[in-house]
Design brief:
Layout (H helix, E strand, L loop, with lengths): L5 E6 L3 H17 L2 E7 L3 E2 L5 H6 L4 H4 L1 E2 H7 L3 E4 L2 E5 L4 E4 L14 E4 L2 E4 L4 E2 L7 H4 L6 H20 L6 E6 L3 H20 L9 E6 L11 H13 L4 E3 L4 E5 L2 E4 L4 E3 L2 E4 L3 E2 L18 E2 L5 E2 L2 E6 L4 E2 L1 E3 L2 E4 L4 H19 L13 E6 L3 E6 L4 E3 L1 H19 L1 H14 L10
Parallel strand pairs: 1-2, 1-9, 2-5, 9-21, 11-12, 11-17, 12-13, 19-22
Antiparallel strand pairs: 3-4, 6-7, 7-8, 10-18, 14-15, 15-16, 20-21, 23-24, 25-26, 26-27
Helix pairs in contact: 1-9, 10-11
Amino acid sequence: MESSTHRIVIVGGGAGGLELATKLGNTLGKAGRARVTLVDGNLTHIWKPLLHEVAAGSLDAATDELSYAAQAKWNHFDFIYGRMIGLDRRRRVIQLAGWKGAYLQDEVPPADVHYDTLVLAVGSVCNDFGTPGVREHCIFLDSRQDAERLRREMLERRLAAVAQGRSHILRVAVIGGGATGVELSAELRDANRKLAGYHGHQDSAEDLDIVLIEAGPRLLPALPEDIGLSVEKELRDKLGIRVLTGTAVKRVEADGLFDAKGSKIEVDMMVWAAGIRAPAFLRELDGLESNHIDQLVVRSTLQTTRDTTIFALGDCAACPLGNGVAGNVPPRAQAAHQEAELLARNLSLWVEGKPLLDFHYHDHGSLVSLASFNTFGNLLGNRMIEGWVAHFFYASLYRMHQSALYGSWRTARLMLGNFIAKNTRPLLKLH
């Protein structure tokens, strides 16, 4: 006999999905007004804007990741490990793929999870725009596994050169001049400098050649022009990174890439960070409306246009800006955070059968970190800030995310613990 408790299923434990599960667990779940379940194909969560630091080795994911099972126990919701592959709206079930572990002899069969209300918060993946060779030869930054692969490959190439007593210039191309590409390029330069120090080399600038490639006329096209120009100057003049704007990549091969003119840029490693799209399985998912980059089209209440029992938030949702402004909410962490807050209120109203609230996006500005070198951005307006003030606000973004998950007191203790441990660990993950 099925329970009469309202079943809310959230698919995706990224910034928005996990914050929403935590809020609903501590309200509806704790009060017994609904059963809240989070579904994710990973066992742990790490904030996606930190993946470039994981890739460089400046952040150890093992120390900053959060267990979904532990978070569920602490905050009155359930966690199911699994990857969503389908939806049956008539039966109100999501379909999870079967899986086989490294030690299991038999495969865990596919499973159905029943819902009364479904929230899709599956984030985004890199968009290769159909460019030949990208999938085969480029590294993405969609997951912790991707970031770890980049870090390990760069580390192994460095260790091999040291072991063989030879000098080797490692050539790395980062394709995409948005925030991810810019921050990754700076982080890799900083990490290489630190790594050289651990191996007894004083100057490491000459053994790492980074080229940052952007198809548009300038870096950081989503930010004010003065920020993009300042960041480009910093990358070129102080960090020694080659910046190629107005350069569209048309083909990728194992040893390099080709631009629109057919010129080849020879490199050893390539990272693709040139755009995003929603996961492909959302495309016309059991009749749900999706756009050209597979995002689910939602109303201002965050309900999907063709099924009021299904909601979507974050990068996988095409949510209108509203207030007479054309376009959709940008795929940013701050947008997912705001949507999670609104949806936590709306689902409480939904369970009670009350009218829902409309989502209104508030742009609080943008910040871009160039590792330990500098930080640029704008807050609540178009005036540029940089230096330690910008870095303070940049660091506070992650603390706000932690506070939404842990609460203020636990976040403060985590900050204190990180400060104490700082002098007991190397500056870079070296293994």
